[in-house]
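Quick sanity check, DNA polymerase IV:
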Amino acid sequence: MRKIIHIDMDAFYASVEQRDFPEFRGKALAVGGSPDGRGVVATASYEARKYGVKSAMSSRMALQLCPHLLFTYPRFDVYKEVSIHIRGIFKRYTDIIEPLSLDEAYLDVTEDKLGVGSAIEIAKQIKVAIREELNLTASAGVSVNKFVAKIASDLQKPDGLTFIGPSKIVKFLDQLPVEKFHGVGKVTAKKMNQMGIFTGHDLKRFTEQELIFHFGKSGKFFFYIVRGEDDRPVRPNRISKSIGVEDTFEKDLFELEDLKEELIRLAEKVFKRIERANKQGKTITLKIKFADFTQITRSKTLLNPFEKLEDIELQGLDLLDKLELQDKRIRLLGLTVSNFKDEKENDKVSAQLRLF
């Protein structure tokens, strides 16, 4: 039986800004976006979250919820430096570390370097080290697999530590609202609710085949994780081949300006994730799903990697402009960046811009 810890920094970007700049402390703060209503919030401080401000929300909406909200530009170089320090703290206990981003990671401490023996005690020591050495707080989830550990880390934020042992997993998941399941987004949760699925207990009424029928390959994942079964190992050398986001709209879009606005919002989210992963890609892919569920993708590869948000926005909008979308209703847009700089270069790639 494995001992897995999921560490998640509390409002990471905003907490770093509040640590470094006294004028932000105790204030409702958004990292990313702008006071003129443009852009998207990357992270909000807990003071802002009380008003409903959250990540990936438009600045316009954030200001409506919290008119006194302060904005600051993200300093990714600083966040990366802090993240490296945090990774060093993890390595005192184990080398089996799977970073998910700058601010969260899985740790397998089944056999820890210092012989502590207790995953709960290791999580406590890591939290203390982060607080004393970096003046920041983290939340931790401890369990026997990645899925439950990740959910646990979110239960007592900020500065929380939650242990869910083997004997409590089934009961815990039975009572858990499906919206809290990692991997269940807003659209999937709404579909589940329409099917009478509100908790893990409800989800367990369906067979594996029924869930696959309704949710595709994710259905198989849902079938096992609701039973607490997750055999995925912590992978210290996991390599991301692509980074992307997509959004299914509550109402189909058909106006080009609305689509462009959504695409810009997606570009900001993709750029944020690329920065957090410290990646630079040269290929951008636009995905469109129509109201009849047919879908298309269009890609473009450049000679040099995207370095700025504006580069991703420009190329994404160019792909969109080249499509004939008159009178077509669109239910989903997706944007992905791949072909990362650190991957092996293909000798046959042309130096010219490619569209395929």
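Posting the structure with no commentary besides this: The CA atoms of residues 139 and 154 lie 7 Å apart.
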